[in-house]
Automatic annotation (TrEMBL):
Its EC number is 3.4.11.2. InterPro entries: Aminopeptidase_N-like_N (IPR045357), Aminopeptidase_N-like_N_sf (IPR042097), PepN_Ig-like_sf (IPR038438), Peptidase_M1 (IPR001930), Peptidase_M1_dom (IPR014782), Peptidase_M1_pepN (IPR012779), Peptidase_M1_pepN_C (IPR024601), Peptidase_M1_pepN_C_sf (IPR037144). The keyword Iron-sulfur does not apply. Belongs to the peptidase M1 family. This is Aminopeptidase N. It comes from Pelagibaculum spongiae. GO terms for biological process: proteolysis. The lineage of its organism: Bacteria, Pseudomonadati, Pseudomonadota, Gammaproteobacteria, Oceanospirillales.
């Protein structure tokens, strides 16, 4: 970064604002070349009214400023690049301002910008300051009235937060709409949308009998892709009423889908703005994964109405207060709508593949960070996914009834307030009487705890010794023990749960317990057992920890076949595969040959044909751990060896289970799936097809071509993936045909980019470089960047090419993007965070690229990521 380093903000420095805003009236005069924003605000001092008033503002042209109707002279205020200071103000006053902004040139997609010719806003975290001068912080909550004016032919739809209270015609072919939000909110929840949009409409009757108007706005060509999103919304509303007693509170709930969006969606009060990826779907254009993602994100943003909007964050350090809690809520919703064990496995896989590495890297931070340079960099898997795991632990410790009591008290105490993570913990503790003082360390300490579990059995007594330790992280060398809920059972020789008589405990005898691991070392003793048991540990992944147990391979095989906890059945197979592959990498380094893992193959074969299991669960078990997961298990990562060993194992499993894969695929291909199991059946069928690619290319090609011609995008993508994987003319033709058919649909062409950027074989870098020049790629569109450049940056074997060309390519793109959209550039910069995990040659190459980037004039977003990586 040229010049002074950016300012660091600290949680410890928080102080309440000197002034609060109670009411805001905004007027937007939308125009193609400029937009005028007028603001009228009622303010009052919280203490000493002699303090100057500081308002945030960036890239604004101030046209007028007045207090209580009196225009201010230029010597009464000062404007700088980050805001406006009024030197002297009364204790209570009305502030009016008018600014000029330019949404048409806003490529950062923060504040007010244009997407496909429509106006749209994104104000979280600090985008409202790019709309008008304001106290842009979450603890300043006000009631908003917003008037939007625009050309009626160009912008027939004018939307903002709350309920529509007035609309009408203006001179010159213009019109207006006025929206009133009756609930106080911080500026980050403000929203405005205007443009050429159509909508589908439905309604929902709440538990108190109120009818809510539901609308989803999209561009006209997408109007036939909204039904699934609407059904997901209605399911979300009912689930929140049934599960938490929470009812929607406005007369209308609106969703708008836009093509240019930095994130997945935004929960603005009553007017959610979504990345079109998480709204638009029909079977011809969207995969089963897309459908599941839409349901989850629709639910997430709806649930924010209470966990984020009605009760919000005091400051941005408390982000997990709303995001972690709402992630947990959307995960529970999706689990209730679909297969719970499958959803749990998928969520844990995200934590392990992305959050654990973040915990172990230079950007490691607690779910409540102590400091930041750029707030957008802390919309992380730690704050979201680990934050969700922390909320899940509350429920595990308190039980569902206790957790519900805590939630009820939280809303009763804090509705309409901006609060902290401590307030949430206090509500849980006060509602149940459970001491959660040590649990608070999950908010303050970074890093992933390591559990070491050792067991002994003698004379009918089983002892479980549990030790915990958490590695040092940046700024936190010493860690205190966490409060870890360890869900636990003992299985007999037939796989039945055994009674647990925990010595020294007043808990009743049961067949499953949640053990409170509170100390650095504890021993739990169970008596009265008729035979030596096999422990089922950390059932359902009851805490976000890394566990080292003394379970043998035979124990894991037993659990894979018998554990009634489906997560642990999957986990046992994963551990067997990880152990074998890590051993395989070590063998390659010594020049030894790889040998078939008989026990693992047998476990997979049994799982494949076990029809008592959900087909999707069987597919997950057959999916080997990702290369990135294996990399995290190694002290020094060898991406080429990992790729070679994993590919060898897939080939060997396919060879050993040839007949089972063929038979299962053909059987599933003939099944007429129901609405309830269709996606699960397709998942297992396509898993089998992927393995058939390794053993019978003729059969795989034949079946893949059949699927490629089907009117179902899940099967089309699986078929095209197989054809491309076979690396022949059929694959190249499939790519040509696919793009020719779908080139007008940007979300479908994103899948086309992703498939090519994720390829493990061939010269993927050359292919990706060529696709940068493709007419369907636009570096200003975040979805396109994520689909091509972002996917390549996660391609372990090609990003980490030994010649360093993968590093140089991504560094060049980061520098290019930083001038266009710093948020997206910073996200991409995260691909360098783990550079010290690799061999010395790769370290030198990555370090050189980071030094080249940090020497440039970077945004504070990207500077923070790169500088911390180097440090």
């Amino acid at each position: 970064m040229q010049g002074a380093q950016p300012e660091v903000k600290y949680l410890k420095d928080y102080k309440q604002p000197d002034y609060l805003i109670s009411d805001v009236a905004l007027t937007f005069k939308l125009d193609e070349t400029e937009t005028l924003v007028s603001a009228k605000m009622n303010l009052n001092a919280t203490g000493d009214a002699s303090q100057p008033l500081r308002l945030d503002g960036e890239k604004l042209e101030l046209l007028s400023l007045s207090i209580n109707g009196q225009l201010l002279n230029q010597d009464q205020y000062a404007v700088d690049d980050e805001g406006l200071t009024i030197h002297s103000v009364p204790a209570e006053f009305v502030l009016e301002s008018q600014v000029r902004i330019h949404p048409e040139t806003n490529t950062e997609l923060e504040g007010l910008y244009q997407s496909s010719g429509n106006f749209c806003t994104q104000c979280e975290a600090e985008g409202f300051r790019k709309i008008t001068y304001y106290q842009d912080r979450p603890d300043v909550m006000a009631k908003f009235i917003t008037r939007v004016e625009g050309d009626k032919s160009r912008y027939p739809v004018l939307l903002s937060n709350g309920n529509l209270i007035e609309q009408g015609e203006l001179d010159g072919g213009r019109h207006f709409a006025t929206w009133q939000d009756p609930f106080v909110k911080p500026a980050y929840l403000f929203a405005l949308v205007a443009g050429q949009l159509e909508f589908i409409q439905d309604s929902y009757t709440t538990i108190s009998g109120r009818e809510v108007d539901l609308r989803i706005y999209v561009e006209s060509q997408n109007i036939d892709k909204c039904d699934h999103a609407m059904e997901s919304l209605k399911k979300s509303m009912k689930w929140d009423e049934d599960t938490f007693g929470l009812e929607y509170d406005l007369d209308i709930y609106m969703i708008v889908a836009v093509n240019d969006f930095n994130m997945g969606a935004m929960e603005n009060k009553g007017l959610n703005v979504f990345n079109s990826k998480f709204v638009l779907a029909k079977p011809e254009t969207a995969t089963d994964t897309d459908y599941e993602g839409i349901e989850g994100v629709i639910g997430h943003e709806y649930f924010h109405n209470w966990t984020g909007n009605r009760v919000t964050c005091r400051d941005w350090f408390q982000l997990s207060l709303k995001e972690g809690l709402t992630v947990f809520r959307d995960q529970e919703f999706s689990s209730d709508m679909n297969a719970r064990s499958v959803k749990r496995i998928e969520d844990v896989a995200v934590v392990r593949a992305h959050q654990f590495p973040e915990d172990d890297g230079p950007m490691s931070h607690p779910i409540r960070p102590a400091s930041y340079i750029e707030m957008n960099n802390f919309y992380t898997v730690t704050v979201y996914q680990k934050g969700g795991e922390v909320i899940r632990m509350y429920q595990t410790l308190l039980g569902k009834d206790g957790f519900r009591k805590g939630m009820d008290l939280y809303f009763k105490r804090h509705d309409g307030q901006a609060v902290t993570c401590d307030d949430f913990l206090s509500a849980m503790q006060d509602a149940t009487g459970v001491d959660l003082s040590r649990f608070s360390r999950w908010y303050a300490q970074a890093g992933t705890p390591r559990l070491t579990v050792r067991s002994e059995f003698a004379n009918g007594t089983f002892s479980l010794k549990v030790s915990q330790a958490t590695p040092a992280t940046p700024g936190q060398e010493e860690k205190l023990p966490f409060h870890i809920p360890l869900r636990f059972a003992l299985l007999d020789g037939q796989g039945n749960r055994m009674p647990l008589n925990l010595q020294g405990s007043d808990k009743p005898v049961t067949d499953e317990l949640v053990l409170d691991v509170l100390e650095a070392e504890q021993t739990f003793v169970f008596s009265g057992l008729a035979e030596k048991p096999v422990p089922s540990l950390l059932r359902g992944f009851s805490a976000p920890v890394i566990m080292d147990s003394d379970l043998t391979d035979q124990d894991q095989l037993f659990l894979a076949a018998n554990d009634d906890d489906e997560f642990n059945r999957w986990e046992a197979i994963q551990q067997l595969a990880i152990n074998w592959m890590l051993d395989g990498v070590a063998k390659l380094a010594k020049g030894e040959s790889l040998q078939r893992p008989q026990g693992l193959v047998e476990a997979l074969a049994k799982t494949l044909v076990d029809e008592s299991l959900n087909p999707a669960l069987r597919a997950l078990a057959l999916g080997l751990p990702a290369e990135s997961v294996l990399a995290e298990k190694m002290d020094v990562v060898d991406p080429d060896a990992i790729h070679q060993v994993r590919s060898w194992l897939r080939q060997d499993i396919a060879t050993a289970m040839t007949e089972q894969f063929k038979a299962t695929y053909l059987k599933l291909a003939e099944i007429e799936p129901t609405a309830d199991n269709a996606s699960s059946v397709r998942r297992l069928k396509n898993c089998c097809l992927g393995y058939l690619t390794k053993i019978d290319s003729q059969l795989a090609t034949e079946k893949a071509q059949v699927q490629f011609a089907e009117p179902n995008m899940t099967n089309v993508m699986a078929g095209m993936s197989v054809l491309v994987d076979l690396n022949g003319a059929a694959g190249e033709q499939a790519l040509v045909d696919f793009y020719a058919k779908w080139q007008a649909d940007p979300l479908v062409t994103d899948k086309w980019f992703m498939l090519q950027a994720s390829a493990g074989e061939g010269d993927t870098l050359a292919k990706v470089k060529g696709l940068l020049e493709h007419k369907g790629f636009d570096i200003r569109n975040p979805n396109k960047v994520r689909s091509l450049i972002g996917v390549f940056a996660r391609n372990q074997v090609h990003f980490h090419r030994a010649d360093g060309e993968g590093y140089r390519f991504i560094a060049d793109r980061i520098l290019e993007l930083d001038a266009i959209n710093p948020q997206i550039a910073a996200r991409l910069a995260g691909s360098f965070l783990r550079w010290k995990k690799f061999d010395s040659d790769r370290q030198k190459l990555m370090k050189a690229e980071m030094e080249r980037m940090v020497a440039a004039k970077l945004s504070k977003n990207t500077y923070e990521i790169i500088s911390k990586s180097l440090a």
